[in-house]
Amino acid sequence: MSQAISRPRLALASYIVIPARLASTRLPRKLLLRETGKPLIQHTYEAASRAKRPCGVIVAADHAEIADAVQAFGGEVRMTSPELPSGTDRVAVVARELPDADIIVNVQGDEPEIAGDAIDTAIRLLEENPAVPMSTLATPIRTREQLLDPACVKVVFDSHARAMYFSRSPIPHARDWDDRLLADDVCHFYQHIGLYAYRRDFLLRLAELPPCDLEKIEKLEQLRVLAAGFSIVVGVIDQPTRGIDTPPDYRAFVQRQLAR
To answer: Is residue 1 part of a domain?
Structure first.
């Protein structure tokens, strides 16, 4: 049984789609891990459901085991081909089945502590910027370790909050380093948070665009959007989300859950 979420309809109808892939390299079958008493995908689904703007939440599953887990806790799920190359492609498949949707939000399945307010912020950015096809989020970087970590994707944006570039390298690069740059009242460095909101028609178009050279080098799919000449508006939030990529990430998550 699928469970629809009842929301008051706003001027733009938005839906959250959670791409959920069974195979994972660094933490095998992570979306089905359940040391907290719930599978990880359920934690993400429940966290996403706290957003106020969306009309509903749908999991885009690539395997029957994930679909079964979602149905077991009453969530809505759609099956997608395991051959699809990316989560964006999986989200686009579901978006094609939602002709009444204006905005589609891509929330990663391994983000069990995503804040509902963060999702609402990404949606609001598109509501307030009708000429922009896509939005995402960022949060301040305050440590040099994080700035230098290639796993921490950085973003720079202009005075209109439009993304200029995303990189695994430190950007902007300080020619003359000073630790005070990290402590300034005005933030100079931002971590990109991998949550995206798209206008539905743009998402369907994006899924047809070939990868660009920058994307291939950095392994960052959002660079395809910039290289094609489209804008991404960036909203700043106070705290980063905590994705689950490795066994230590999951152990720390379990400890936080059990401490509640």
So the answer is: no
Number of domains the chain contains: 1
Token duo for residue 49: 């459901």
pTM flag (> 0.90): yes
Q: Smallest Cα–Cα separation from 17: which of 84, 112, 120, 93?
A: 93
Report d(CA 136, CA 138) in Å as an integer.
7
Classify residue 6: in a domain, yes or no: no
Q: How far is CA 73 from the centre of its chain?
A: 22
Element at 40 (helix H, strand E): helix 40-48
Q: Which domain holds residue 121?
A: 14-253
What is the CATH classification number for the domain harbouring 202?
3.90.550.10
pLDDT in tens, the chain (260 residues): 334 444 444 468 999 999 999 998 889 999 999 999 999 999 999 999 999 999 999 999 999 999 999 999 999 999 999 999 899 999 999 999 999 999 999 999 999 999 999 999 999 999 999 999 999 999 999 999 999 999 899 999 999 999 999 999 999 999 999 999 999 999 999 999 999 999 999 999 998 999 999 999 999 999 999 999 999 999 999 977 888 989 999 999 999 999 98
Kindly report the length of the chain: 260
In a domain? residue 9: no
Give dist(CA 204, CA 89) in Å, integer.
9
Whether 171 contacts 223, CB under 8 Å: no
- Distance between alpha carbon 195 and the CA centroid of its chain, in Å? 2
| Residue 2 belongs to a domain | no
